[in-house]
């Protein structure tokens, strides 16, 4: 049997090479300019991110391009100059006219000072405003996340809107006594001013937060900067039971439209949870009146205002249930006050028909110039495609049906110039541009590659579809199938008969789309075949597939992965004596199930922040509703622990099968994981150690559920690859 034993130096060199491929994160088109010969052109500003292993951080850089077009097609496009790193920018946004740019910047404090935040305004030649938000002390830190955060220009370009943490009064213990700071005392009495006086006994009060990756987000407020007057005001009129975010200016700048999340009776984790009760609101700037624009019993997000300022589209899900679902596209007419459903959830995916909407957000700029069509990207089984939706008729057209198969994402559309990102499992992200054709002709979209990335040699891939046997069909949702992406090394000593690494995704309601993924590509280059399984319950296959999994975790999803592994070992030339599992979160849950339920198939296992005992997780996670929903039980915030429910949770957990495990297990845990707290992995580690199973645990401080810190990610790959090479000999 050919052996793959690259030395540590070779592995680290391979990882260094592949991890340098940058990701494309944002794009912005400048205003149209006219040449002296009558031709039109515009600039395209793009932001990319890249791992810097030497600095152990993700860096951002920008690159500019020029696009010459005649309104119907792109005549010429190409880069303008080289890349340059972007330092300390938290948010940035061009004004509607394209002549101004707002930037939220963090500035390190001098000596013992705290880090500061500045809001800057730039014109085309210089910085015209720099406002020290920390010194003004009207609010806490500005939110730069993609769930609440925003930086929105008023239509008049005189005001900026953003979200920040509500200012908290200083607190001290009952026995603390401090001299008032200079300038904060009342001139008449010499005592601290009432609003500045610390509140006694409030020093250790607990403040809820919004969970995983949002631990510094508790009480968001909407803030407005008057650019001319250099003044900041915190908007009033927002009901106290709501947390506002994703805000923008209403037509004619009369007020602000925002998404409000209910936070009573308590906050649940919001990251990757598009099922939290929320609604669309309007707050009037003059009277402070707050008005509901959508229903108040659903989950809504991603509101986008049309260029003619007449319509707002947004996404909508049911509250609770699976955290990710097939979403509805809704539209609110600003002047008639009428709300319509543009697209309903799709029960089953069918080729040639719209697959449904499965996306975390609509593109920031998604409207065509006609204020009638919108652009979005969505999973279509195991690939991701771009669609145009006619909001008047609900008809959809794929813009990528005839383009190369892979993963397509919309970055922006402006004046019908469309910018997208494309990648495949063997090709890092590339930048594509096109002109959106007139309505009815969208299928003729011509994509042009603006920034190429050479394909990675030595990797082949394909998508296969599997049908569960009759005895494994879901009684309510019969006829569901699922996919897997198989990557193989096409060169090297193991190319003829490689060992197999099986990777089920997390979620469970997420999906592997056929795009660039660092770990699978690197494992393939090491010499492993990699099987990425989109078991039933994955997104992109219709709402029926999503609904089939809750209540059947630990059985349906486990059997789907095992069926896929057995079928691939039968049909492909792979080394069945060297099969391993790698998985994170729910993928780790499945990996731990599989080594217990099918111990003879697997010879090594690597898990990242795995769920191993749902019963012990329910009281410690930021998403207790997940534990009940996926077990098949109803969730109620006021429900008390129930022995029968705990029994059911334990029954569906990998811990139940730990006595059958004999494959060596490597665990990687994030110390700051709020989603699947590291106590889960520790519980499994101790159970394996007590049974004499070879195990090793890596503990990553400063890392949360994703283990996405540059150092943790790099260390994780090296340890994973060495563990697999060692135990698959």
From TrEMBL:
Domain Peptidase S9 prolyl oligopeptidase catalytic: 522-729
Keyword Hydrolase in annotation: yes
One Pfam family from the record: APEH_N
Domain Acylamino-acid-releasing enzyme N-terminal: 12-448
Gene Ontology MF: a single term: omega peptidase activity
Transmembrane segments: none
GO biological process: proteolysis
InterPro entries in the cross-refs: 6-blade_b-propeller_TolB-like (IPR011042), AARE_N (IPR045550), AB_hydrolase_fold (IPR029058), Peptidase_S9_cat (IPR001375)
EC nos: 3.4.19.1
Catalytic activity of the protein: Cleavage of an N-acetyl or N-formyl amino acid from the N-terminus of a polypeptide
Superkingdom: Eukaryota
The UniProt record lists the keyword Signal: no
Cellular compartment(s): Cytoplasm
Residue ranges of the region described as Disordered: 178-197
UniProt biased composition (Basic and acidic residues): 188-197
GO cellular component: cytoplasm
Subunit architecture: Homotetramer.
Family: Belongs to the peptidase S9C family.
Protein's name according to its UniProt entry: Acylamino-acid-releasing enzyme
